[in-house]
Design goal:
Length: 359
């Protein structure tokens, strides 16, 4: 069975319940004897492309904190092999299992390295190459991923927890957390959508595991809203990158130096949205979404809920139908060009604001 397509808004609405299902499935799989080689990895190397690569900031941060030697690398950088990387387990992530670069990386992994794949769609080409697979459950997903991306973060946290020997996981209340944050996001984003839609570009800034949210946010702004966007690590952003601010939207994730950064940007007249667990009062140009005190991986999922609401509102305000892609590349997915996406790209945005759908 292959994962079916739903609209972006359908993905948002179904996400909380889907994430709870995914957590249950992945827990069960990771406890099985067949996944022992994955649980016993000591030097995992994570790889993926696009949104999958962004999500990998979460397990890398967690495992490094726990003392493991680990890193993430774009699959395109190891298509010819894993030489030069000290790893005993390659964990390849591709929601559909069709990303050509990730398939090539898995195929060329050095002998003796366990090849693990995290996927939503099974069976798939990447799954066939892997020694060990973990599946989200063929959950329906949107082209600009909603459930698939957030579910991947959930699964990666559980994988990192299994490797590190964590006794418990934090996903028991994810459906309720997701619903509560979505309600808050709808209120806050509604107040900035008109000005935000007029911005010419966006910067997304975070540290630690929330770098996943900064990278995913920049990708969604490009993919859904068609707004030029760039992701930065907080400390690097302070070293000159923020100087280009001007008619720009700034998304800042964090509780430390990020708070002062957000206030500085808003004080200089730049539209800023801060996602934080701290008590920060909104101000002129500064909108605040206060997140609950939760573990890092859960926080990243809740940040993603906000991002999805933001890009949905901005895309509607700008009259850009979600998933009406401009370019359809025939060499990024094994199996060839997705004809339904090419048709949308060829005719441009739908005049009725409908969303593209496809297999």
């Amino acid at each position: 069975m292959s994962g079916s397509r739903i609209t972006f808004l359908e993905g948002q609405a179904a996400q909380g319940a889907a994430l709870a299902r995914i957590a249950d499935r992945v827990r069960s799989q990771l406890a099985s004897p067949e996944r022992a080689a994955l649980r016993n990895a000591r030097r995992p190397l994570f790889t993926g492309m696009g949104a999958s690569y962004a999500a990998l900031a979460v397990p890398v941060q967690q495992l490094r904190t726990a003392g493991f030697v680990t890193q993430r690398v774009l699959s395109s950088e190891i298509e010819s092999g894993t030489a030069g990387f000290d790893t005993d387990c390659l964990i390849a992530v591709s929601q559909g299992g069709r990303s050509s670069e990730t398939i090539a990386a898995c195929r060329s992994a050095a002998p003796g390295i366990t090849r693990a794949a995290l996927l939503n769609v099974l069976p798939s080409r990447l799954g066939e190459l892997a020694d060990v697979t973990v599946g989200l459950g063929n959950e329906p997903d949107s082209y600009a991923s909603t459930i698939g991306y957030a579910g991947t973060v959930v699964a990666l946290d559980l994988i990192a927890g299994a490797i590190a020997g964590r006794a418990q996981d934090p996903w028991g209340g994810i459906a309720e957390h997701t619903a509560a944050v979505h309600r808050q996001a709808a209120r806050v984003v509604g107040g900035l959508r008109e000005r935000g839609a007029r911005c010419i570009a966006s910067d997304t800034v975070a540290a630690g595991a929330s770098c996943a949210s900064a990278e995913e946010g920049a990708l969604l702004l490009r993919e859904v809203v068609r707004m030029t966007a760039a992701a930065s690590a907080t400390r690097n952003y302070l070293h000159g990158e923020m100087e280009s601010a001007g008619n720009t939207l700034h998304l800042v994730f964090g509780d430390g130096r990020e708070i002062e950064l957000a206030r500085s940007l808003a004080g200089a007249g730049h539209l800023t949205l801060l996602l934080t667990t701290a008590r920060v009062e909104p101000a002129d140009g500064l909108s605040v979404i206060r997140l609950p005190e939760v573990p890092d991986a859960v926080r990243v999922v809740l940040e993603t809920v906000v991002l999805q609401e933001l890009v949905a509102r901005l895309s509607a305000e700008r009259g850009v139908p979600i998933e009406s892609f401009v370019f359809a590349n025939d060499d990024t997915k094994e199996g060839g060009l997705d004809r339904s996406r090419l048709a949308v790209a060829a005719r441009g945005p739908a005049s009725d604001g409908s969303r593209a759908a496809g297999p």
